[in-house]
């Protein structure tokens, strides 16, 4: 599974145009939900915050797995939509970008590397971090916390 951490809200909105962007949010309900940076709750929170801040959020979709192309074909985007905000790892983001080349596609997270989870303990372990996050190798995180490290 892929471990991610959320980008700052300002990083996301800095790529948006309040006047011209008609937004759909496409979320993943797999790794990113387990890590706490996505899933149905985060999708709804982001949509509500964007709407409250004056952005034109037209629709939202939650896919079982965003990195698997067949799931992407289960959604039908409104013809008005010109921007997709993707609550998934870079594989899901890339899938959306490749299949909807006419849309502006915005990432919401940064990938840390590959993780394993222990549901009994409620923890995630970063086993194979990307180079930038090598210092976090074998660190444990609270499941569903969006990167809250467990201090030992």
Annotate the secondary structure layout.
Layout: E1 2-6, H1 9-13, E2 22-28, H2 31-35, H3 40-52, E3 56-63, H4 69-72, E4 83-87, H5 90-99, E5 104-107, E6 109-118, E7 123-129, E8 140-142
Parallel strand pairs: 2-3, 2-4, 4-5
Antiparallel strand pairs: 1-6, 6-7, 7-8
Notable traits:
5 helices, single chain, four-stranded antiparallel β-sheet, 152 residues, alpha/beta, 8 strands, 2 domains, four-stranded parallel β-sheet, Rossmann fold, 24% helix
Give a concise summary.
This protein is α/β, with parallel strands linked by helices. Helix content is 24%, strand content 32%.
Can you walk me through this structure?
This protein starts with a strand and ends in a 10-residue tail after the last strand. The model has no long low-confidence stretch (mean pLDDT 97). The chain is built from 5 helices and 8 strands, in the order βαβααβαβαββββ. The radius of gyration is 16 Å and the shape is globular. By secondary structure, the chain is α/β, with parallel strands linked by helices. The longest helix has 13 residues, at 40-52. The protein is 24% helix and 32% strand. The protein has helices at residues 9-13, 31-35, 40-52, 69-72, 90-99; strands at 2-6, 22-28, 56-63, 83-87, 104-107, 109-118, 123-129, 140-142. The strands form 2 sheets. The chain has a 4-stranded antiparallel β-sheet with strand order 1-6-7-8. The protein folds into 2 domains: 2-111, Rossmann fold, CATH 3.40.50; 113-142, no CATH class.
């Amino acid at each position: 599974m892929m471990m991610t951490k959320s980008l700052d809200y300002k990083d996301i909105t800095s790529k948006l145009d309040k006047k011209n962007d008609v937004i759909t949010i496409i979320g993943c309900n797999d790794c990113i939900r387990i890590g706490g940076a996505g899933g149905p709750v985060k999708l709804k929170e982001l949509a509500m915050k964007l709407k409250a801040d004056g952005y034109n959020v037209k629709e939202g979709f939650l896919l079982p797995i965003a990195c698997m192309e067949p799931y992407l074909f289960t959604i039908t985007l409104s013809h008005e939509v010109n921007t997709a905000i993707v609550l998934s790892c870079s594989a899901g983001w890339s899938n959306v970008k490749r299949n909807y080349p006419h849309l502006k596609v915005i990432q919401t997270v940064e990938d840390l590397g590959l993780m394993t989870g222990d549901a009994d303990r409620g923890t995630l372990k970063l086993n194979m971090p990307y180079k930038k996050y090598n210092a976090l190798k074998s660190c444990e995180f609270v499941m569903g916390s969006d990167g809250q490290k467990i201090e030992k």
